[in-house]
Amino acid sequence: MPERPQIVFAGTNGGALTQFEDYAAVGGFAPLRKARSMAPDDVIAELESSGLRGRGGAFFPTGRKWAFVPKPDQLAKPHYLVVNADESEPGTFKDREIMLRVPFRFLEGCLIAAHAISSQHVFVYIRGEYEQEFEVLRESLEAMRKADLLGGVTVVIHRGAGAYICGEETALLESLEGKRGQPRTKPPFPAIAGLYAAPTAVNNVESITTVTSVLELGATEYAKLGVENSTGTRVFSLSGDVVNPGNYELPHGITLRELIYDVGGGVPGGRELKAIIPGGSSTSILTGADIDTPLDFTSLVQAGSSIGSAGVIVIDERCCMVQLGIRVSQFYEHESCGKCTPCRVGTRWLTQILQKIEGGRASQPDLDLLLSVCDRIMGKCLCPLGDSDAIAVLSYVDRFRDEYQAHIDLGRCPFDGESSLEGILAPSAMHESPAHGIARV
Ligand SMILES: Cc1cc2nc3c(=O)[nH]c(=O)nc-3n(C[C@H](O)[C@H](O)[C@H](O)COP(=O)(O)O)c2cc1C
Ligand code: SF4
Q1: Ligand (nearest to CA of 66)
Q2: Cβ atoms of 237 and 93 closer than 8 Å
Q3: Domains along the sequence of the chain with CATH
Q4: Is residue 225 scored above 80 in pLDDT?
Q5: pLDDT tens digits, residue range 227-243?
Q6: CA 281 – CA 242 distance, rounded (Å)
Q7: Nearest protein Cα to ligand 1, atom 6
Q8: Dihedrals phi, psi of 183, to nearest 5 degrees
Q9: Is the CB of 56 within 6 Å of ligand 1?
């Protein structure tokens, strides 16, 4: 069993630290006092040397992002910290557990980040469906306000209305401003012209919560965890065809085998592992042969995928890869904001061609057309949503081409109605997480 250091979930003992006194008793709020005793630039330097990189998907270094935000004397506008709690990437359900189990550590991280970028205004943009999480955050924030910990910073918890695209940072900012949630062109980047055209840092919930831990442990200690280029721990969301789905905090660099078999109990019924999506639905699929790939940024790029949001989806031999393509493509088609044509039209084309292949109505040129549509989407969209669909579908065809070809050659699905996608990227697959008893999607 791999070692399981608790950084994000430190002090919880498998439960939750939702009482102010309980959190204070495990050293809570000392990192905030420490940060406020430091100059903002020194906090940023500490984050840079910790190697912490964003947990929202793009893995951008957190300290460097903050360093891009102009100093108050360079740009005399309000500065904003916006926390992305929209968590909608299929296969990813870790931020909700962080907000439920360590709300104070998260809010403390918000105040530390606000200090680092000289901000007096924090907005937490939380996914609309996260009602319980919203209530926990609201009560925790109130307790911190009563304890006089906010230090003049206003913290607003803003509920989203259920659009995946509002997790994209500029669409999120538009939505916060009360406009339709559609991405902006970049540049300018939010660091310079973000919320209300003012300097803004946008960070993910797990990134911000980890900031508190970095201040507590110190950059050097924190960087000892994980591997080069991917320091620290990660809260992996494990789902799909696995005995023990749930969220698991583990150091970067553990292998897929350790996560799926040693921690997750393996594939149910001793079935064969067919494929793994390592970082949420937007990342390229890996095959069962990639099981010894370490879960870190560099190793996953070398394997032809990416760590993304660290939502690891396990797929066993019963899953038809064309049906998987349809499920994923339908999601992106539905969530496309429609602002640019390659995404709005292309995602629909992908779904329709995949349905034709699955229905046994496709001929060879349809497979070529599928790949050609992917090519016409990739790199031609305003934001990464369109690319995500194309990247995913391309990877399914690339790794499982024989299966796609078989649909065409046979004129039917080779699974003959026996394919199962149960629990794989399925919004209806609400379970009680055996790990912590928290409902997940
Ligand atoms: C379509 C789309 C959806 C996204 N959804 C989320 C999300 O739900 N949560 C999140 O933290 N980042 C999401 N991101 C990434 C954000 O744009 C941004 O990179 C991230 O919030 C930055 O935080 P970090 O640097 O701490 O990772 C999404 C990006 C795209 C393109
Ligand atoms: S890529 Fe899709 S989601 Fe992104 S801006 Fe274009 S239409 Fe909207």
Answers
A1: 1
A2: yes
A3: 20-224 (3.40.50.11540), 236-317 (3.10.20.600), 321-410 (1.20.1440.230)
A4: yes
A5: 999 999 999 999 999 99
A6: 17
A7: 167
A8: -60, 150
A9: yes
Cβ atoms < 10 Å from Cβ of 294: 19
For tokens 């319980």, the residue is 132
| Cα distance between the two ends of the chain | 26
Q: Record the pTM.
A: 0.96
Pairing of strands 273-277, 286-287: antiparallel
The protein residue with its alpha carbon nearest to ligand 1, atom 20, reads 56
3-state secondary structure of 125: strand
Predicted local distance difference test score (pLDDT) of residue 76: 87
- Evaluate if residue 429 carries a pLDDT over 80: no
pLDDT in tens, 313-333: 999 999 999 999 999 999 999
Residue 93 neighbours by CB under 8 Å, 6+ apart: 87, 237, 239, 247, 311, 440, 441
Q: Is 184 in the pocket of ligand 1 (CB under 6 A)?
A: no
Which of 337, 345, 349, 376 is the best mutation target for the ligand 2 pocket, counting ligand atoms within 8 Å of the beta carbon and taking the most? 337
For residue 381, the CA-to-ligand 1 centroid distance in Å is 16
Q: Does residue 434 surpass a pLDDT of 70?
A: no
Minimal-distance CA residue to ligand 1 atom 24:
54
- Write out pLDDT tens, residues 42-61: 999 999 999 999 999 999 99
pLDDT tens string 346-374: 999 999 999 999 999 999 999 999 999 99
pLDDT (0 to 100) of residue 427: 58
Which residue from 288, 286, 394, 408 is spatially nearest to 332, judged by alpha carbons? Answer: 394
Distance 297 CA to ligand 2 centre (A): 25
In sequence order, which residues have a C-beta less than 8 Å from that of residue 158 and are 6 or more positions away? 123, 124, 125, 126, 176
Kind of pairing, strands 121-126 and 154-159? parallel
